[in-house]
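Figure 6 in text form: structure in, sequence out.
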């Protein structure tokens, strides 16, 4: 073997492969990970040292979405780069008004799992974000189309403020139970999983009856239902950065929608306790920033810090943001021959989750992509 055929990258330190599994070294050749010391060394081999995590995952992120709806490709690319440079190398896009399928062809951008467009109803979600179905009975057909256009996930808006109730306006479910159940069955027949935006408590029983796979936000999940959610294997993404905005949302609704404002304030006040109880009930808690819309991209470390502030142990948050989320989405962590997608840190992020804010190196498909040199 000539020197040029050897690995291009050697990573030495503490390489975390999964729960309770780590090695001291990995090598990268042709964009792939090897756990075995090579017989020949490349002449131009670079060495990185530190704590290594399989590429981080943001499971609730909107590439292609801005505050007013869809954005152009240059803006979507900048969003993806911001996520990548923060160590996020796999994104589950939780709804985007524009088709970002072109990201799949860009080796410099994170891997992307698209859920297609948010499925909502007129005046029952943020304007310009989703596909607004005039007739609720169109939901199953829309789910089929989005499932076929996306990457194995569908996003349904489960509840939103109903302003037609006037000063009684408050969070209300969008879909009749039977329609929702049919829609989820259609998605599953298309081999797609379903995740649902849910702020309220009222919507949760219908989601469980319909057999949804994942719940976004989950602020209203009653503690009495948490054990059932855990048993059913339904994951929940607490999106604490987004829930942190509820006080501001309530302030804008004051006067016009007092019931809604009071509810959002109560959910805001309970947000940390809620996230901790979800975790303690054994529910798979996922890490999602809800970037796009009003939250900036590249904030996975901030969301992790929020989950730790809520009382979830840092080691569990790190696992949830890395190898556990990769497995949940059907992607490898770091195994022999897997794509070399990993992040190097100067110290152990399980001891101080703040370490996630400043990676030493972000390696995507075997290339060091960040920080800029
Ligand atoms: Zn979202």
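Output sequence:
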């Amino acid at each position: 073997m000539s020197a040029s055929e050897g690995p291009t990258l050697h990573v030495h330190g503490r390489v975390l492969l999964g729960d309770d599994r780590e090695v001291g070294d990995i090598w990268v050749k042709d964009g792939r990970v090897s756990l075995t010391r090579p017989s020949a060394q490349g002449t131009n081999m670079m060495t990185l040292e530190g704590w290594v995590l399989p590429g981080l995952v943001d499971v609730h992120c909107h590439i292609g979405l801005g505050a007013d709806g869809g954005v152009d490709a240059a803006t979507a690319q900048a969003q993806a780069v911001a996520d990548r440079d923060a160590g996020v190398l796999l994104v589950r896009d939780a709804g985007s008004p524009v088709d970002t399928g072109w990201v799949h062809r860009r080796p410099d951008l994170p891997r992307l799992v698209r859920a297609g467009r948010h499925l909502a109803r007129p005046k029952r979600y943020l304007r310009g974000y989703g596909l607004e179905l005039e007739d609720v009975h169109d939901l199953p057909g829309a789910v089929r189309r989005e499932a076929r256009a996306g990457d194995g996930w569908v996003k349904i808006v489960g509840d939103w403020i109903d302003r037609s109730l006037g000063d009684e306006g408050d969070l209300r479910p969008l879909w009749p139970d039977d329609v929702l159940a049919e829609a989820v069955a259609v998605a599953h027949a298309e081999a797609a999983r379903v995740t649902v935006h849910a702020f309220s408590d009222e919507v949760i029983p219908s989601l469980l009856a319909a057999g949804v796979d994942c719940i976004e936000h989950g602020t209203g999940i009653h503690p009495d239902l948490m054990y059932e959610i855990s048993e059913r294997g339904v994951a929940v993404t607490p999106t604490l950065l987004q829930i942190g905005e509820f006080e501001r949302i309530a302030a804008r609704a004051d006067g016009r929608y007092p019931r809604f404002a009071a509810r959002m304030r109560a959910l805001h006040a309970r947000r940390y306790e809620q996230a901790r109880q979800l975790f303690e009930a054994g529910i798979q808690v996922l890490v999602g920033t809800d970037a796009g819309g009003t939250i900036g991209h590249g904030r996975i470390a901030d969301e992790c810090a929020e989950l730790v502030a809520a009382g979830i142990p840092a080691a569990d948050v790190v696992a949830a943001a890395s190898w556990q989320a990769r497995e949940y989405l059907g992607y490898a962590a770091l195994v022999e021959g897997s794509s070399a997608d990993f992040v190097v840190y100067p110290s152990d992020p399980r001891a101080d989750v703040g370490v996630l804010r400043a990676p030493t190196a972000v390696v995507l498909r075997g290339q060091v992509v960040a920080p800029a040199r």
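Caption detail: The chain has a mean pLDDT of 96.
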